Amino acid sequence: MSDKKHPLICIPGQRLCLSNKINVAGAGTYEENGYIYSKLVGTVEVMIEQNVKTILVHGINKLSIIPAPGDLVTAVVTQVNQRFAKCIVKCIGDIILARSYRGILRKEDVRATEKDRVEMYKSFRPGDIILARVLPMTEAHVYSLSTAENELGVVLAQSEEGVSLIPISWTEMQCPKTLAKEFRKVAKVVPEKDALSHADK
After folding, report:
1. Taking the model in full, what pTM does it have?
2. b (16+ CB within 10 A) / e for 82-102
3. DSSP category for residue 86
4. N or C terminus of the chain with fewer C-beta within 10 Å?
5. Residue 69 gets which letter from DSSP?
C-alpha cells in the first residue's frame, strides 16, 4: 500500500482498502461497509504481524480529524423538537476539534429500550452538553448520533437559574439552588479508573 520512501498521503474519508481478516483498522482509521477509511490528513502505515495487516494513519495535522462511525463525541444541543435534537459536535474523544460539525440525535436513538416512549423534551434541552456515539452517516454533512448506552447522554446542563444541575437518577437532574427537578436522559459517567479496570478484563 505504501513504503517509507514513498508514503501514501491520504485525506479524511478516503477509502484505503478492504476490511477483512487480513486488513484491520488501526489508529487514525475507521471501518464502514467492508472498507477501511482514513480519519485524518496524513500518511498511511501498514503494520504486519502474524499475517495480519493493521492499517494506520499518522496525522500531519491533529486538528484535521473528523467524526467517524463508532467515535465517542461531546456535543452541544442547539435545538429540540418532538422527533430529534440538533447538535454541534465539539470534541472527538479528548481531542477538541478545530471546526464544529453538525449532528442530529433522532428519537429512536436516544435509548436502547422503550424507544416508542421517548419524549425528546424530557431528554434534552438546548445548551445541554452530551456524550454520544457516532452512527453511520445517512445524509451528507450531518452526523447521526446515538445516546442508547448507559454511559451516554447529558453530562452537563444548567437550570433556569443558570446553576449546573446535579444528576439524581437516570432520568432526572436537580438544581442545587432551588431543588427543582428537571427531566433528562442522564449519562452514567464512569470514573476513569473504573473504565480502565473494565477495559483490562
Report:
1. 0.64
2. eebbbbebbbbeeeebeeebe
3. E
4. C
5. T
Q: Between the CA of residue 151 and those of 132, 147, 198, what are the distances in Å? A: 9, 8, 13
pLDDT mean across residues, the chain: 85
**Would you say 71 and 38 are in contact if contact means Cβ atoms under 8 Å apart?**
no
Give the residues across from 89 on adjacent strands.
Answer: 75, 101
pLDDT digits (tens, 9 = 90+) for 32-65: 889 999 887 788 999 998 889 999 988 765 555 7
What is residue 200's DSSP assignment?
A: H
Yes or no: say if 179 and 172 are a contact pair by the CB < 8 Å rule: no
Contacts of 166 by beta carbon, 8 Å cutoff, 6+ apart:
173, 174, 175, 176
Assess contact for 49 and 42: CB atoms under 8 A. no
